[in-house]
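In this supplementary section we document a worked example of the pipeline. Step one takes a protein sequence of length 230 as its only input; no multiple sequence alignment statistics are reported here. Step two produces a three-dimensional model, which step three serialises into structure tokens for compact storage. The input and output of this example are shown verbatim.
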Amino acid sequence: MFQHLRGQFAFALWDRKKWSLILARDRFGIVPLHWTKAGDQLLFSSEIKGLLASGLVPAEPDHRGLDHIFSFFAIPSRRTYFKGISSILPGHFLKIDGNTGSIDKHQYWDSNFPDQGDEYNPGIKKAAAEFGEHLTEATRLRLRADVPVGCYLSGGVDSTTLLQLAAKTRADQKGVPAFTIEIPCPKLNELSPAKHAAEQVGCGAARYYLRCAIQSAMRFRSSSRPAKLR
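The serialised model returned by step three reads:
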């Protein structure tokens, strides 16, 4: 089943015939999925606060999980920063037997890190062409939606490239609407490069702007400065 899934996902699948539950997470762990046991009950949620809201899970800190957060700015294990609450790892799924209560952990995918000398090296031109094909296909798939799709544009290389690919994919639909954020602070404002990028892509100026209050911009500037040690 998992080999047919693409993109980001987290889901719970209940098999009434086998009386079993599958909890699965996408390959890179973009979508979170947490679980815990409270007595003979299994609880799961996409957010930890959903588990805490049940009233069955005490909000006790896991000091090792907190240490991971401050050391790696992420948690690279099943551990979370709450005691007794686990996270399903990327590329993994749990299979829970509703009759016995057993929980089996399975890995269905892992990143491929070849040994030195065994790397895939088709040459710069072919690698660039293949990367372009993958990026174009990924952009095309993410334009499929039941609601209008827009593109955030900062004027940088990544957002401009994605907007250009999206506009090319939807050339028959007059491109993709773009938006950017206007911040009344010269060092943070990206409005001018965003407009220039949109014009170069052929979408005209970015159609929508979100104006950030000067107080928010100043708070961002002050919080981004390194703290002084006394």
